[in-house]
Amino acid sequence: MADFKTHITTSSVLGVGYGLGGFLLFDISLPHAMVAGTLCSVAGMLPDLDSASGIPQREMLCFMSVLVPMLMMRRLRMLGIDPEMMVFIAILTYVFMRFVVGRAFKRYAKHRGMWHSLPAAMIAGLTTFLVVLSPELEIRLYKSWAVVIGFVSHLILDEIYSVDLSGNNIRINKSFGTPMKWIIPSLWANISTYGKLAILVVLVLGDTSLMEYLGREPIELPSRAAEWFVNSSEEDTSQMR
After folding, report:
1. Stated pTM of the model
2. Do the Cβ atoms of 123 and 200 come closer than 8 Å?
3. Rounded CA separation 38/178 (Å)
4. Is 167 exposed, middle or buried (0-12, 13-18, 19+ CB in 10 A)?
5. Within 13 Å and on the Cβ side, how many CA atoms surround 70?
6. pLDDT score of 152
7. Residue 195 or 94, more confident
């Protein structure tokens, strides 16, 4: 398994290339390119939030606890929230990320479990799309893909390091095949992961800017749970007729 230094070095190099590529080839503004490159670099350590050693998890949680509130500032401004309330929300977000999310990973996540998987990379990318608000859809997608690329680079490195080429014979470690996966033997872990992924997909499809870009109507979610029952009952009644 690749160590912390290898992961962060690889994702940082990818981040620099990703940012420069966007800036030089696709006319992405320098600030957006720098943020995307940073996100790619940081995402290279996201899979280790399930690490049992504690050091990668602690460092990543501290960094994410600061980064996420900063990425939310544009959305908060568009909601008309005043600066003082933004500070309060940022503090709450920090506490939530640092302690609630951190404890959830420590308690429920198993190292090399479903958080070390391709669906998890998709979850990270979709979450970034929802958090990073921008008037330009291309910028949101650009930053979201930065996170996916950084995340997947971690999985690829773990896969590469599971093959030992140091001796005369090629030796494949038992960890081979565990990072680049879609499911694991645990049914509950699979249901939980794909449930979160499905929720994020629905939320993204309900995003107005994305649907306008695709020429489709955004999905409208009922504001109350009772509306789900009323709508489904009406559909059943019409079908019976």
Report:
1. 0.78
2. yes
3. 27
4. exposed
5. 7
6. 94
7. 195
Q: Measured between alpha carbons, how far is 78 from 209 in angstroms, rounded to an integer? A: 14
Residue 175 reports pLDDT greater than 60: no
Residue found by looking up tokens 């929300």 in the block:
89
Q: How many CB atoms lie within 10 A of CB 211?
A: 16
Q: What is the pLDDT of residues 55-69, one digit of tens each?
A: 667 777 777 888 888
* String of DSSP letters for 102-137: HHHHHHH--TTSTTSSHHHHHHHHHHHHHHS--SSH
Whether the predicted pLDDT of 236 surpasses 50: no
**With 70 as the cut, is the pLDDT of residue 230 above it?**
no
Q: How far is it, in rounded angstroms, from Cα 217 to Cα 178?
A: 39
Q: Are 89 and 81 in contact (CB under 8 A)?
A: yes
CA gap 236, 229 in Å, rounded: 10
* First vs last C-alpha separation in the chain: 61
Cα separation, 224 vs 239, whole angstroms:
24
| Number of neighbouring beta carbons within 10 Å of residue 240 | 6
N residues, the chain: 241
pLDDT at 145: 96
Q: Which two tokens stand for residue 239?
A: 């079908």
The sign of the torsion formed by the CA atoms of 223, 225, 226, 227 equals positive
The CA-based angle 39-110-113, given to 5 degrees, is 70
pLDDT for the residue numbered 184: 84
